[in-house]
Amino acid sequence: MNVIIVGAGNLGSSLARKLSDLGHRITVVEKNPKAVSLLPRGRIDSGAMTVIHRDGATGAAMVEAGIANADGFIAATGKDSLNGLVAQRAKTIYRVNEVMTAVKDEGARSLYDSLGITTINKASIASDELV
């Protein structure tokens, strides 16, 4: 699968690494050069992972990331509103079938789920695991 991940913080980098381990083609969109340092350098150098240094909320960044050929899209920026914006754009404008995002606010989760965007609430998952 060809997967685009917006955000290369802890969650985005971990997802990129794990999906790459499974053999998926990963493109990460991240404007912060320090965040990109969490990605495995060897995978980037080998071409298994591509990094786009742009604001992932822009259409230009999505096009450069190859959204027309994306099988999956994950918004993992750490900001619910930004995640929702880019996930909605991927789903409605670019017609990506599998669109996912992480949210903190349970209200945002309900809204994005109603739009056909798969959402997870990190706090809910962590508390379920701890219980």
Describe the structure in brief:
The chain is α/β, with parallel strands linked by helices. It is built from seven helices and six strands. β5, α6 (106-114) and β6 form a beta-alpha-beta unit.
Describe this structure in words.
- Helices cover 46% and strands 21% of the residues.
- The protein has 131 residues and is α/β, with parallel strands linked by helices.
- A 6-stranded parallel beta sheet has the order 3-2-1-4-5-6, with helices on both faces.
- Helix 6 links the parallel strand 5 and strand 6 (118-121).
- The longest helix has 14 residues, at 80-93.
- It starts with a strand and ends with a helix.
- 37% of the residues are buried.
- The mean pLDDT is 92.
Total number of beta strands: 6
Read across the widest sheet, the strand sequence of neighbours is 3-2-1-4-5-6
Name the helix and strand elements from N-terminus to C-terminus, one letter apiece.
Answer: EHEHHEHEHEHEH
* Major sheet summary line: 6 strands, parallel
Bin the strand percentage. Answer: 15-25%
The low-confidence parts are: none
Integer-rounded radius of gyration: 14 Å
Summed up, the helix count is 7
> What general form does the structure show?
globular
Percentage of residues assigned to helices: 40-55%
Going by helix content, strand content and strand pairing, the class is alpha/beta
| Mean pLDDT across residues | 92
